[in-house]
Amino acid sequence: MVKLFAISVIRRPTEDPVGGRCVTLKASFDLASFGFFQRASVQEFLSFSSTTIVERTGLATRQSVKEQEYLCHVYVRGDGLGAVLVSDADYPPRVAHTLLTKVLDDVSSKVEWKMANAESLKNYKEIDIVLARYQDPKQADALTKIQAELDETKIIMHNTIEAVLERGEKLDDLVAKSDNLSAQSKMFYKTAKKTNSCCNF
């Protein structure tokens, strides 16, 4: 099942990247799939992991880090603004990185993030909306939606061919009986079938 668990916007120091501390400016969590008593611990661990990953990711770098059945997608811009998206292993990385770029662009356009802290972004609600919207990558991302529609079309076409074969009809018989095919097309079909049959074991 495709699932997003958390997204965090984190400021990373650019002057002293090794010794400096990262600051979480805003985070949003969807922990409904965890037990009620686990949620606080899970949120704490996700926050810790996100900060740690940003601290260890170079400036102007994207990466996806696997931890058990989870993926942490991270993007740290050259100016030190970073974001982490925690998802399950099935979530498409391309969509995750598109989301990270959108969030960072939005934050930097609406907030003076270099001087901001968690308190100054407490009213920034767009991150919660984005986390909810991107739960289904097909709805949030046009390219993924088109790919899913193409996959559905492929499955429908495949099922239609299977249905014809299940009724006992054979393609050879249909070709032989068809008035819509010229003698040349029928000969081409027979030749192609004979050529292809020599390659099958």
UniProtKB/TrEMBL annotation:
Q: GO cellular component annotations, sorted alphabetically?
A: cytoplasmic vesicle membrane; Golgi membrane; plasma membrane
The Longin domain is annotated at 9-131
Whether Lipoprotein counts among this entry's keywords is: yes
* Keyword Cell membrane recorded: yes
| Family matches, as Gene3D superfamilies | 1.20.5.110, Longin domain
Looking up SUPFAM superfamilies in the UniProt record yields:
SNARE fusion complex, SNARE-like
| Keywords noted in UniProt | Cell membrane, Coiled coil, Lipoprotein, Membrane, Methylation, Palmitate, Prenylation
Q: Which stretch is the leader sequence? A: none
**Membrane protein topology class:** Lipid-anchor
Instruction: Give GO MF terms, alphabetically.
Output: SNAP receptor activity
Q: Where does the record place it? A: Cell membrane; Cytoplasmic vesicle membrane; Golgi apparatus membrane; Golgi apparatus, trans-Golgi network membrane
Report any Pfam family annotated for this entry: Synaptobrevin
Question: Which residue numbers delimit the V-SNARE coiled-coil homology domain?
Answer: 142-201
Which GO BP terms sit in this record?
A: endoplasmic reticulum to Golgi vesicle-mediated transport
Q: Which family does it belong to?
A: Belongs to the synaptobrevin family.
Q: What does this protein do?
A: Vesicular soluble NSF attachment protein receptor (v-SNARE) mediating vesicle docking and fusion to a specific acceptor cellular compartment. Functions in endoplasmic reticulum to Golgi transport; as part of a SNARE complex composed of GOSR1, GOSR2 and STX5. Functions in early/recycling endosome to TGN transport; as part of a SNARE complex composed of BET1L, GOSR1 and STX5. Has a S-palmitoyl transferase activity.
The name this protein carries in UniProt is Synaptobrevin YKT6
Q: Which organism is it from?
A: Folsomia candida
